[in-house]
Specification:
alpha/beta, 2 domains, six-stranded parallel sheet, 13 helices, 51% helix
Length: 308
């Protein structure tokens, strides 16, 4: 191996990706911005909803002031009409990192979508390709029988995956059920855990709070988002409510309100309850990753504790 090639490899391996993760409303964005300012670098978002430009309020996208402080990537860069998944994110994020590491020795990744973070850090498992005919049948079942019917079947076929997945996401329930039915094997059996090789070092930072503190933050944030015009935003995308990108906590409840199924007070309370449940599922996912070092975002010495 030539000295030039050895030097190039060593240089790439000296690059560091800091991954800031944790449940919704814990304070990841503020923390990541402070860390990025400390290192003089940029942020790559790993949030499967913040990348849609039409829904900035309901996805808690960084504010204009925050975006001006630190350059973000994968925020408001796609339309709701565009299909996007973790595999595409892995490809696109790695391409971005190639460019960012040419300018910076350290880059920050920030987000709460566990599958996106896994895709970027470890790569995705070799899961069988989609069975379009079976997927159509399951989609029709979803429309006719509701999500609960599919959830019940998936829980019976693969309780391991069901317990740690976002079971409220129809697309992910259908995908897991599709694999179970087409292969006769649990979806989780394809998660072999073999990591793809990365040419940069990865340091994972998890943020956590007590349940009471986090629940209070969630409640306050929901109220603030509604005050900032979330309902108006939901009205603007109401006709697109069939899109997968809008099958998520907050919009489903507001769409139910706009359809006359419940009043705004009831919808608000349901959003808070379902967001707390979502945060719990996020923590279950992240706590299974032994590489994550956990901190409280309120600790005054947290930045001094983060070492290369």
């Amino acid at each position: 191996m030539s000295n030039i090639l050895k030097s190039s490899i060593a240089n790439r391996q000296s690059k560091i990706l800091y991954v800031v993760c944790g449940p919704t409303a814990v304070g990841k964005t503020d923390f990541a911005i402070e860390l990025a300012e400390k290192f003089g670098t940029e942020i790559l978002s790993a949030d499967s909803r913040q990348l849609y430009r039409e829904i900035p309020i309901g996805t808690a996208q960084p504010s204009a002031e925050q975006l001006n402080r630190v350059k973000h990537h994968f925020v408001a860069n796609r339309s709701l009409e565009e299909d996007y998944n973790a595999g595409m994110f892995e490809r696109d994020a790695l391409e971005h990192l190639d460019m960012l590491f040419q300018k910076h020795d350290k880059v920050i990744c920030c987000g709460g979508t566990g599958l996106y973070i896994k895709a970027l850090c470890d790569g995705l498992d070799d899961v069988p390709k989609a069975d379009e005919k079976l997927r159509q049948q399951l989609t029709e079942r979803l429309e006719n029988e509701g999500l609960e019917s599919l959830q019940t079947q998936l829980k019976q076929l693969d309780p391991v995956h069901f317990e740690k997945m976002d079971s409220q996401n129809p697309q992910r329930v259908i995908r897991a059920l599709e694999v179970c039915l087409s292969t006769g094997k649990p979806f989780s059996s394809f998660h072999v855990g073999e990591k793809s090789e990365r040419t940069f070092k990865i340091i994972k930072i998890g943020l956590e709070l007590s349940r009471d503190e986090l629940n209070e933050r969630i409640n306050q944030r929901v109220d603030m988002m509604l005050e900032n015009g979330w309902l108006v935003e939901a009205k603007a995308v109401f006709e697109k409510r069939h899109l997968n990108a809008l099958n998520t906590v907050g919009y489903k409840e507001l769409f139910a309100h706009l359809s006359g199924e419940m009043n705004l007070e009831e919808a608000t309370e349901k959003i808070k309850i379902n967001t707390r449940r979502f945060a719990k599922r996020q923590m279950t996912w992240f706590k299974n990753d032994e590489e994550i070092k956990w901190f409280k975002p309120t600790d005054s010495n947290v930045f001094n504790s983060i070492e290369d």
